[in-house]
Design goal:
alpha+beta
Length: 402
């Protein structure tokens, strides 16, 4: 499959992005192109910063040192070596912390399944230090959240955001995770009971995941993990939720397709159809194909080509990497992207209705209402959103983009 590239300057990836794209392709196929991309780099510090921003610095370092060592300045080689050592120490530390937390939960009768982080690195990349982990994501049954929270607090963690009991209840009702941070070792844990906020309308049945969970070995210890098809879908939903603005999320999908032999893409598409998330899966597969040259079966390729929304969203994501935009997309742009990623109008309407009333930290920061008036936050949210949208539209008009 031809790697996407156009001679028109407006369609070219910046040097730093192109370097990362070749790092995520098959090593045997991409070696010569990676060397050519490395020769073209004129600002190595910026290239490393870009790799760090996209959480691909470990993979970049391995590929460059393996095939392009003679092309790199001595200082860059030194920086890559130092980062590799630091990253290896941190990755193994997070892996051990994950295993300890899983054992802790198990000893208290809590079934827990990690996804992303060290478990994903081992399963998809083959080495825990090849994927840069920022936090530990652990999925537990919703009925066990309170017990799991208390166990984390007992291990020196604290909720990352201070919440009143009423606010915490609202998060549990409408959101999908609680974030915990331990200052002693700067360890961040996200405790999930779902994969996306309620308004995202992703009808994921966590209990069915436990019934299908498989075992893998992490540092010699058996842990539960989602089956490959479920994991692929979870990665695509997560990427869509965040507008695929980090290359590592697309690289994860490409590496899954390339390296996880048990993965059945036909079964993954069927699973996505059950969960009304086919377009999000197809978008992830399309990006993995277009940017990292992941090979797809022809029937799936045909479905991608025939879905104009998937084609449009793929171009939109690709263009953000061409622009190398570091700005956070506007709220309106995020909402439109999410709506376009859904194939059913009923899910789009549900998204709009729930998003408009899903009061959260932004509303709580505006007013400090007593508990018996907390229902007013849901009335405050639509007014705040309208103000935000009007401000964003005005900014677009002033910039000549609307």
């Amino acid at each position: 499959m031809q790697f996407p590239h156009s001679d028109h300057p407006a369609n070219r990836f910046p040097q730093q992005i192109e370097l990362l794209l070749y790092c995520g392709r098959s090593e045997a196929v991409a070696r010569d192109r990676l060397r050519a991309a490395a020769r073209a780099v004129t600002a190595w510090p910026e290239a490393l910063q870009t790799a760090e921003r996209h959480k691909m610095l470990p993979l970049l370092g391995k590929r460059l040192r393996a095939g392009c060592r003679d092309l790199l300045p001595a200082e860059i080689l030194r920086q890559l070596s130092a980062f590799e050592q630091q990253g290896m120490v941190r990755s193994h530390y997070l892996m051990r912390q994950l295993i300890e937390l899983l054992r802790l939960f198990e000893s208290h009768g809590i079934a827990a399944i990690p996804f992303k982080g060290p478990a994903l690195a081992v399963m998809v990349y083959g080495e825990v230090n090849l994927r840069q982990s920022v936090d530990l994501d652990i999925l537990v049954p919703a009925s066990e959240i309170s017990k799991a929270k208390d166990l984390l607090l007992g291990q020196g963690f604290a909720l990352k955001s201070s919440l009143t009991p009423q606010q915490e209840a609202a998060v549990l009702r409408r959101q999908y995770h609680l974030a915990f941070f331990r200052p002693a070792d700067r360890c961040l844990v996200e405790l999930h009971w779902d994969i996306a906020p309620q308004y995202f309308s992703f009808p994921f049945d966590a209990m069915r995941l436990w019934q299908r969970a498989e075992k893998i070995k992490l540092d010699g210890v058996e842990i539960l993990t989602p089956p490959p098809e479920d994991l692929l879908l979870l990665l695509c939903v997560h990427g869509t939720k965040h507008l695929w603005n980090r290359l590592v999320w697309i690289c994860d999908v490409a590496m899954m397709i390339r390296n996880v032999q048990q993965l059945d893409l036909g079964k993954a598409v069927a699973r996505a159809a059950e969960l009304r998330s086919t377009r999000m899966l197809l978008l992830g597969l399309s990006l993995a194909n277009k940017l990292f040259d992941a090979e797809l079966p022809e029937p799936i390729g045909q479905r991608i080509r025939s879905d104009t929304a998937v084609q449009s969203l793929t171009r939109q994501v690709r263009e953000q990497f061409i622009r190398q935009s570091q700005t956070v997309e506007s709220l309106l742009a995020r909402n439109l992207f999410h709506l376009k990623s859904r194939e059913r109008w009923s899910d789009r309407l549900r998204y709009c209705a729930l998003f408009a009333t899903a009061a959260g930290t932004s509303e709580w920061a505006l007013l400090n209402l007593p508990p018996h008036l907390s229902f007013l936050y849901s009335l405050l949210r639509p007014a705040r959103l309208i103000r935000v949208y009007l401000a964003e539209l005005w900014a677009l008009k002033m910039a000549g983009r609307w």
